[in-house]
Every structure is written in structure tokens, then in C-alpha cells.
Write a structure and sequence with these properties.
By secondary structure, this protein is mainly beta. About 0% of the residues lie in helices and about 50% in strands. The chain has one domain: Thrombin, subunit H. Strand 2 and strand 3 form a beta hairpin. The mean pLDDT is about 85.
Length: about 110
């Protein structure tokens, strides 16, 4: 069995467009952040946790661990769409090394509802 055969989920990766200076938008000024058209990829999406808060307003946060192939482009400002859900990256993705370079990419994502 190969690693790629374990990637059974279909996701679309959306990365932020670059501004006219060629640098990524600021993490703190991302209200007007535009994203590219999206890139389809295979992945493995696994739910890690689900939290619910009922103070002031009902909020549910679901946390996922996502495994992707080595060739994907991803940043902390990216988001994924999977099964109709919009998953925001929680921090920088981790590029996991193998014997001959990057083996795969791992990231934590959150879906916030409410």
C-alpha cells in the first residue's frame, strides 16, 4: 500500500492572491483578502475534536487533521473545502520530510459554526 492510496478524500485548496507588491496580504489585515480559483487535491481528512460553547452565542468548533501530497501549495492563510465544509488552517502547514525530500504535508484545520 502506498501513501497516495491512503488519500481517499477530495478537497479544494484556496490560497490567498498576492497584492500588487508581490507579497502575501497581512495576516492581520485580511478583511479584503481575495483567494485564487482553487486547486483540487486528494487528501485524508480526520476529525480530531469538536467543542461547543453556549456563552453569549452558540458556537461549535470542529478540528480536523488533514494529510496532503507533497506537491501542494499551502500557507497559514489558506483554506480548504471538503464535503461542503470550509476548513481554515490553524497555523502553518508542516512539510514532512522523507528520504528524498518532502514526503507529505500535514495541517490542522478548523470549521467554526455559529
Amino acid at each position: 500500500m502506498t501513501y497516495l492510496s491512503l488519500l481517499i478524500d477530495d478537497v479544494v485548496i484556496f490560497n490567498p492572491d498576492e497584492d500588487s507588491s508581490g507579497e502575501d496580504y497581512s495576516r492581520y489585515g485580511d478583511e479584503g483578502l481575495d483567494f485564487d480559483a482553487g486547486t483540487a487535491s486528494k487528501a485524508r481528512v480526520m476529525q480530531e475534536a469538536s467543542n461547543e460553547t453556549a456563552i453569549d452565542r452558540d458556537t461549535r468548533v470542529q478540528v480536523y487533521k488533514v494529510y496532503l501530497p507533497a506537491g501542494v501549495t499551502l500557507s497559514a492563510l489558506s483554506y480548504l473545502e471538503w464535503e461542503g465544509k470550509r476548513l481554515r488552517l490553524d497555523g502553518e502547514p508542516e512539510y514532512v520530510d522523507g528520504r528524498s525530500g518532502v514526503h507529505h504535508v500535514e495541517c490542522k484545520c478548523q470549521e467554526v459554526l455559529g
